[in-house]
Each structure stands twice: as structure tokens, then as C-alpha cells.
Design goal:
This protein is α/β, with parallel strands linked by helices and 361 residues long. It is built from twelve helices and 14 strands. Helices cover 37% and strands 17% of the residues. The strands form three sheets. It has a seven-stranded mixed sheet, sandwiched between helices. β3, α2 and β4 form a beta-alpha-beta unit. The longest helix is centred in the first third of the chain and has 24 residues. About 18% of the residues have low confidence.
Length: 361
């Protein structure tokens, strides 16, 4: 799986932030692996900066020459590794810009890797852009010629991929416990959880402990695998909840838009059973996704388009549903149990009828 290119939104207003997010979703769907970082993170390979406000101007001035910068500004700007775009910016324009920039950056990284350039000395963020001005339906873009950046520029090799290994996140700890029927003890300061994969339960002293641990930085968690005897002994007189409920919440809230390792946006999948929305929390978008997935096998890429839901939300719903055993990955569009796109069971037909009544179909 290719390393995602990190994109940092800097000082963007809500409208431009939403435009950028949708554009990133679209280029991911097109196979250009990219990851949108939290607002104002300085660690992106590409900085998308609104230079028409004080924070954006300050970040632009302090940014390294080697970082590639897509700058939104009413005033024409030029500089090393700087691409200027006059606002307002539409989604299609942003998608086109990101596609062109990211493909050039990835080509540069691939060339450096082929030449065995040491990571400490490579030109990770440098993209050979020619200086030009282009008009695209009312918008103007200027790309400034680039020069090699400083030696300490971050590389794609620094980017973590989503993985099923228990050491990656609490979501993966919970998933590992369920799949391997293993037991773990997770601690954060004086708060701790017991995870019982063997019987599908979670034990905690207080009902809010699980949420506190999920919100804590993963690096500050102490995680230890324990045996069934230790779980049973320590879980006495503690509050017991279901592992699937916590696993669902972790998948929905902490997937960060990253699909589980080994899964593919283009693979047809089907919902085997209806999620427990009463227990897991109801979201209208999840109901919509579930109704479509229950109807027939569909790829996540097509699901996102049909449902009109953001990619991150599709991925988080899928991760959560897969984690609790609701996803059939063996179903295909030619499944003999499906005729003319209709579910083969009365249960699925009822779900379809309900979806139509609610306006989801």
C-alpha cells in the first residue's frame, strides 16, 4: 500500500476547509493516497494556506523553502515551491490542483527512492514545477519554480499506515482482542479497562472510564495482555459492558479516515446484519449507508457516491461494521442470491422498504 501524502490545512475558513476535505476524498477515490492532517499542523508534505489572514501569513513566512505550499490569496504571490490560487476555490478546481501537485510530488519521491537517496538528504517536498499562470473558469493559478529543500524535510516514509497490529491504536487493540479472543489490560493514569475478547466484554470501575481512555493519547496508554484467569479475578465487582459496543464507537470515532489494512475501497462488500443503532448511537448517515449496503454488494467507492456521504464517514462506518462482524467480504455483484439488485431475504426487503419511506432510496 502506498504511503499517503500528508496535507495540512493552514488558517482555512470553514468553507475552504470543507472544499479541501472533499477534494482530498476525491483524489483518494482516484487512487492518489493522501491524508488530511488536523488544522494548522505544520507536518504536511503539502501546506494549503489562506494567506489573507494574519495566521496564514505568519505560517507562510515561517515555512521552510522545501515545503510545497498551495497558497490561497487575493494578492498574487510567488516563491520557492509555492503555488498561488486566487479565491474563491471550487471543489473541482481544488481537486485538479491537488491531483497535479500530488502526482508530481509522488513522482519525485519515487525517483529519489529509485536512486537510493538517503532519507536524511532527499528532496522529499521538492516538486519540479514550472512557472506559469493559468485561467480555469474564473480562477488563476501560479506555480513557482522550485529548488532543492533543506535536508531535514519530512518524507513519505515517515507516514504511518493503518494496520491491524495491536500497537497502532486502541481501536486495533479492541479488534485484536475480539478476533483472537484475547484479554488485555489498558491503563491511563489511575484509570484502567479490562478487555475480554474471550467472552466479548469490557470491565471498568466507572461508566465513563472507557470514553476517557479512548480520548487519551495512545502513546500514554499502558497495554498488557493478560490471561482469562486474571481477567475474571480483576473484573469482579466492576461495571461490565459489551466489547462490540466499545469497538463500534472506537471504529466510528477514531478511524481517522484510514481503511483497515488489507481492505480495498473498490472491493464489493455487503452488510450481513443490521447494526444496533439503539446501543451504538444513531446517525442518519449510518442508517443511509446501512440501507444501501444491505440491499446488495457494493464497493465503498460506489457507496460513497450513491449515499453522498464524505469518504471519512464511509470508512469509519465500514471499519466499525467490519470490526463487529457485520460485513460480508465474499459477496460479489454476481451473487446468485441477488436478482435484479434485490436482497434474497425478507429481512433485507423490509430494510429496503424502510429506507424508501425515509427517502434514502
Amino acid at each position: 500500500m502506498p504511503k499517503p501524502l500528508r496535507i495540512s490545512p493552514i488558517a482555512l475558513d470553514p468553507t475552504n476547509r470543507k472544499v479541501l476535505k472533499v477534494a482530498v476524498d476525491l483524489i483518494n477515490d482516484d487512487g492518489i493516497a493522501s491524508l488530511l492532517l488536523p488544522d494548522n499542523s505544520p507536518h504536511g508534505h503539502l501546506l494549503v494556506i489562506d494567506a489573507d489572514n494574519d495566521i496564514g501569513r505568519q505560517v507562510l513566512e515561517e515555512s521552510r523553502d522545501g515545503q510545497v505550499k498551495l497558497v490561497l490569496s487575493e494578492k498574487r504571490l510567488e516563491g520557492k515551491n509555492l503555488i498561488w490560487q486566487e479565491p474563491p476555490v471550487r471543489v473541482t478546481d481544488m481537486q485538479e490542483l491537488l491531483t497535479r501537485i500530488c502526482l508530481r510530488m509522488k513522482a519525485t519521491f519515487a525517483t529519489q527512492k529509485a536512486m537510493n537517496t538517503p532519507a536524511d538528504n532527499n528532496e522529499s517536498a521538492a516538486v519540479p514545477l514550472s512557472t506559469k499562470t493559468a485561467k480555469t473558469e474564473g480562477t488563476r493559478t501560479t506555480e513557482a519554480a522550485t529548488t532543492p529543500p533543506p535536508a531535514n524535510t519530512a518524507t513519505l516514509e515517515d507516514t504511518q499506515e493503518p494496520a491491524a497490529a495491536p500497537s497502532k491504536s486502541l481501536f486495533h487493540i479492541l479488534l485484536s482482542a475480539r478476533q483472537q479472543k484475547a484479554c488485555y489490560q489498558v491503563r491511563f493514569d489511575a484509570i484502567w479497562l479490562l478487555i475480554g475478547g474471550h467472552n466479548g466484554t469490557v470491565a471498568s470501575k466507572n461508566e465513563t472510564d472507557a470514553k476517557t481512555i479512548m480520548m487519551a493519547p495512545f502513546k500514554k496508554l499502558y497495554i498488557e495482555q493478560i490471561d482469562i484467569v486474571a481477567f475474571a479475578k480483576n473484573a469482579q465487582e466492576m461495571n461490565i459492558s459489551t466489547l462490540d459496543s466499545l469497538l463500534w464507537q472506537a471504529g466510528v470515532d477514531f478511524s481517522d479516515g484510514r481503511l483497515l489494512e488489507g481492505h480495498d475501497m473498490a472491493q464489493p462488500v455487503r452488510l450481513k446484519a443490521w447494526p444496533n443503532f439503539t446501543r451504538n448511537g444513531f446517525r442518519q448517515s449510518h442508517f443511509k449507508l446501512a440501507a444501501i449496503m444491505a440491499r446488495q454488494p457494493i464497493s465503498l467507492k460506489e457507496l460513497r457516491k450513491e449515499a453522498g456521504v464524505a469518504r471519512d464517514e464511509v470508512v469509519s462506518f465500514y471499519n466499525a461494521a467490519y470490526a463487529v462482524g457485520l460485513i460480508d467480504r465474499t459477496a460479489t455483484a454476481s451473487d446468485p442470491g441477488l436478482q435484479n439488485g434485490k436482497p434474497r431475504t425478507r429481512r433485507k426487503s423490509l430494510l429496503g422498504m424502510l429506507a424508501r419511506k425515509l427517502g434514502f432510496r
